[in-house]
Amino acid sequence: xxxxSAGPEGxxxxxxxxxxxxxxxxxxxxxxxxxxxxxxxxxxCVCILHNLSYQLEIELPESYAQSIYVQRRNVSSNDKTPxxxxxxxxxxxxxxxxxxxxxxxxxxxxxxxxxHSTLIRIYLSLxxxxxxxxxxxxxxGALQNLTAGTGPMPFAVARTVVQKxxxxxxxxxxxxxxxxxxxxxxxxLLRNLSRNTSLQTDIARExxxxxxxxxxxxxxxxxxxCEITASICYxxxxxxxxxxxxxxxxxxxxxxxxxxxxxxxxxxxxxxASRAAxxxxxxxxxxxxxxxxxKK
Length: 296
Description:
This protein is mostly helical. Helix content is 60%, strand content 0%.
């Protein structure tokens, strides 16, 4: 677990180690089958897989890149040393293109397992069944890592989470977790998922009211709450930018007064949340059919 946090070279060596990823997946599958999702070894395994999934799209070997990608993104190789937790996602475009999806292998081996639907379902199962905060956070974080890019692999993972594996109810429950880092990671995952235009209707129907409900009435002076608030606003922006129905759903959930209050907080420390709320308000105003409802 410590070594998996050692940066890109460490991740590369561990991904290439024959049998390592397969063994971690095998252990977690056994723990879930034996109804033992809360043991420390499972937590360690998930944290390792979480770290090995960091920047996976960028760091894939060329042989995988050629078989999976229509074209590689031109991305700088700047990297920050990750811990098991913390800010992981590279800043990416908020919109994801509908690209031909990679074909999934029936029996994945090694690094192929990291984005396979089997492991995605394992993460979702741990999110639902584990009561261990670190295990929940690492499972959410792994999915966040896998959906952070703009190529076909992140899009395929997002579609699996939302449409094939019915993962939104479990993620929605994590929005109400008492542990703030779990909540923050759940919101960050939803922000990634919400960039996919073909998934936005499903996401809005399932979680938009919950996102509005956890928005603060005004932003308290806490860095993590400020980050969560900003991330919620950008998720709502993605869901409502080109969808008048979703904007109306936000309105009916009484989200507008909260967003206005957050946008008017001009404290420097809270500017991230205030700016995100302002961007959301500006976008909501573009739905001219809702102007009368807004004014009321």
